[in-house]
Amino acid sequence: MICTSYNKLIITNIVCIVSFILMILWKYLHTYMFVRWGVLITLAIFIFEIYHIYRVTNTIFHPIIIFLMSFYCFQNGQLLLLALDINFNTFYINTFPLLQKKVVLFSCLSNIIAGLAGVWCVRKHKLQTYQPQSCIDRYPASMVFIAVSVGAIISGIITIPILLIKFFYYGLTGGYYAVRAFEQSLPAIVPLLEYFFVAFCFLTIIFSSTSHIRTLVYIVLFCWFVITALCGDRTTGAAGILVLIYIKYTMRSRKNKIILPVISILLICFIRFSYIFRNKLDWMVLLTGHNIFISFLTELGFSCFPLFLMMDIVPRTEPFLIGTQYLSSILAGIFPSSLDFSGYIKRLVSNWNIYDDWIKTYYGQYTFGIGFSLNAEAYINFGWFGICAIFIICIIVIKNLTYNTTLNKNNRYSFYKVVMLLFMWITLPRRCSYYIWNALFWYIFMMGFYIHSFVYVLSCIYVHKKKISPLFRK
After folding, report:
1. Helices H, strands E: what count in the chain?
2. Cis peptide before 315 (omega within 30 of 0)
């Protein structure tokens, strides 16, 4: 199947027809039958979309496919188990039986719309790039390596001790809630620095010319992600490990396809292991193969529950936000509260996480972190028209994830963009659009600004000492 406008048009028409059929089924079928048929029909379409992307990219281990699989598991994991009559903990979604059909319809439509965005954005990568793909790629790799190494060391000096304290002093003794309490007591800028540390390490791996430095940074990052997962942030830890494997896989000249299913199984087991460690459960649970995969979909698929809550109160109790929450998310992502000393911007963008206030106000009985989702965010902004917002958001995300998925000396920074955004956005379906703009501004734009500034200062010092032209040439 060749990626042509004709093929895209065919898939678009199929998605439109299936969406129309779903709405008819939603009208005439009772809840049980609609859940089964709606989920299974859209799963078939979603697999067909993934297959099309695979045929174009010639690899299943591609950022688009990774993001879309994450999207499906988070938005539809529990609904798929429900449709297949597999026994799992349905306590929370059964709290709102009258909303099940609406949630299933919205989730099913968003899944195939997200897949359609992938079909429209996917492109065949060029095997060889002869020209630098960004301004930073025009700089000598050695100078960029110095810049990112300094950044990694400085940010690591601050964040590594905090992570170790979090794990050894709070995680091992007080458990998950002690870790959360410790994190809330830290300055708001610490999470920003933690992600910058990860970004600098990714860049160090990509720009390093020596294998032993890359190996050292690999080990440091791997330990970082494992400890992060054991401290309770399982999805971020697993996402980081997956991205490390993706970098290693991309750098290898020979691709071993057998390793991909092995990686998938190990990551699923790792997420389960982290859950057992955090909640101090019986380790025999990990050895039960039946529980591993069902628990994996149950835990990730819980992100459909925020949509239940939002459909319960909007618009019955709270009005639709008509896009104002999206606008606030853009501003809040660019101007984090940790750097807003005046408090003005914080007041201006106060409703970017208004869902948090709604959950505390109307659902105080839930004492744990419910989280949010792209589906719930789209619904509270535009109702059923939020499906269109999902399509636009997925276009933005996938366009950035397909910028450059190969690696050579002319596209190192371009490859970093894909790697860092993939790390930030694997868990995006269980969050909100704030994290799109936050990642693009801070870890792409501001990181580029830092490297430009550092290399410029470094070259000026070199010119001053050697009295020769700046080293802005290869």
Report:
1. 21, 0
2. yes
